[in-house]
Specification:
Elements (H helix, E strand, L loop, with lengths): L2 H9 L14 E5 L2 E4 L4 E4 L2 H4 L8 H13 L10 H14 L4 E6 L2 H16 L3 E5 L8 H5 L15 E5 L14 H16 L7 E4 L15 H12 L2 E5 L26 E4 L10 E6 H4 L14 H16 L2 H20 L5 E7 L2 E6 L9 H13 L2 E2 L1 E3 L6 E4 L7 H18 L1
Parallel strand pairs: 3-13, 5-6, 5-7, 7-8, 8-9
Antiparallel strand pairs: 1-2, 2-3, 4-10, 9-10, 11-12, 12-15, 14-15
Helix pairs in contact: 3-10, 4-10, 7-8, 11-13, 12-13
Length: 427
């Protein structure tokens, strides 16, 4: 055990988990690569949990942070804040929500917590619909709507949560159905559920479930849900903490794959927009955002420094069409990984969109999740010079692949080759 690991254990809670048998200290990064304390270089296919969205040490972002820090670091939301207003204007326009208002937070957890506050206050109901296998953060309210027991440390809750089918396409009672029939069955389940309960405040859903293993329903499910929700006056919250900013390649926001009946009432975001700086936020229609009848501020949300980083990062992403790069390079990578996966009995499915890819592992010859294999592949990939993540459902048996959106084709090929070797080592 390294001395730093020993010091970590001495001062950190037991539940603050670390990757790897011998945890890694990352000291610096550049582009799609990071280096550890021993000077070893790794290709980064996880980006600090989908947070280093464009690149490590992106010059445009580091310059913006340095220049703003040299002027003023902090003021709070009690004063006019030019970088915050400028970023809010851009996010409001990009969100697709009419008459949008934006509130900045410091994390995705806090963004979802704020969305729940807005929805419950607007609807005068503490009942929330959430998706099975979901994850929405670590606050008391966010944990209470998380449909993944590995990330839900308490059954106590300020909310009454009811869980809906549909977030996982290839497992569960409707997995055998075709896409259209799958949607019909999930809608029927939602209709039946609403017939047995008081009117909920909102449905919160990740268009692609992140911690749940990059699972998603067929396109159009949430549009079909929206027709039902609108009849009951129930709001739709789209949790875009992991799916936003073009990562899926096909769409800028995950909700747009389900946009037939319009945008969500509330959209939450975080992670990638700051490229490592602590930015989260909520976008909502003005009547929803303005429904609170008490004062509120955010001491650190909308910090001039983080807003400057967000503006620079968003500008770079749009000017260099990183959504298009995610679509092109991600499409090549997922097909390469599917070809590799076809040669291994332990690979049940390779799924995802753009640069948001999951490889689900099972015990060979069965449909049983294999978290031991996932842990072993994670270790083997590191030994090969590649950092990836893991997650998924009842058991952590999905390899999560989400590189920075500037990933090149040669880097995608290099990563796929290392993954193939890592899978071979555990067969």
């Amino acid at each position: 055990m390294s001395s730093l690991h020993h010091r970590h254990l001495a001062v950190s809670p037991d539940w603050l988990s670390l990757y790897y048998k011998h945890p890694l200290e990352i000291t610096h990064g550049e582009g799609r690569h990071v280096w550890d304390a021993d000077g070893r270089r790794y290709l980064d296919f996880f980006g600090g949990i989908l947070t280093t969205m464009t690149a490590h040490a992106l010059p445009e972002v580091t310059k913006a942070v340095g220049e703003q820090a040299g002027r003023i670091i902090h003021t709070s939301t009690l004063y006019l804040n030019r970088p915050m207003i400028e970023l809010a204007e851009r996010v409001a326009t990009l969100s697709g929500i009419p008459d949008a208002r934006v509130f900045f937070t410091t994390s995705g957890t806090e963004a979802n917590d704020t969305a729940l506050l807005l929805a419950t206050a607007y609807r005068r109901s503490n009942q929330i619909l959430a998706m099975r296998n979901s994850y929405h953060g670590r606050s008391f309210s966010a944990v209470s709507i998380t449909g993944n027991n590995a990330w839900s440390p308490t059954s106590l809750s300020p909310l009454q949560t009811l869980y809906v089918h549909g977030g996982v396409r290839t497992r569960g009672p409707y997995a055998h159905l075709g896409d259209a029939e799958f949607i019909q069955a999930c809608v029927a389940d939602l209709e039946d559920l609403l017939g047995h309960t008081r009117a909920p405040a909102a449905l919160i859903a990740e268009p692609i479930q992140g911690v749940g293993g990059f699972t998603s329903p067929p396109d159009g499910l949430y549009a079909a849900f929206r027709r039902v929700l609108d009849r009951h006056g129930v709001l739709w919250i789209s949790d875009e903490v992991q799916t936003g900013w073009g990562r899926s390649g096909e769409h800028f926001w995950g909700w747009q794959a389900h946009g037939e009946n319009g945008p969500p009432d509330i959209l939450t975001f975080a992670k990638g927009i700051g490229n490592g700086m602590s930015i989260g936020g909520v976008v909502a229609r003005a009547d929803v955002m303005n429904c609170l009848d008490a004062n509120s501020i955010s001491t650190f949300g909308g910090s001039p420094v983080t807003m400057a980083a967000g503006l620079a990062n968003l500008s770079y992403l749009l000017e260099h069409d990183l959504q298009g790069n995610a679509r092109r390079v991600g499409g090549l990578l997922i097909e390469r990984l599917r070809a590799i996966g076809a040669g291994f009995e332990c690979v049940r499915e390779v799924r995802g969109r753009g640069l948001m890819i999951g490889i689900e592992l099972v015990k060979p010859g069965t449909d049983e999740a294999n978290p031991e294999a996932a842990a072993a592949v994670l270790e083997a990939a590191r030994e090969g010079g590649l950092l990836i993540g893991k997650g998924g459902g009842h058991n952590t048996s999905v390899l999560r692949i989400a590189p920075p959106l500037t990933l090149t084709i040669p880097e995608a090929e290099e990563g796929a080759k290392i993954l193939a070797e890592a899978l071979r080592s555990v067969e």
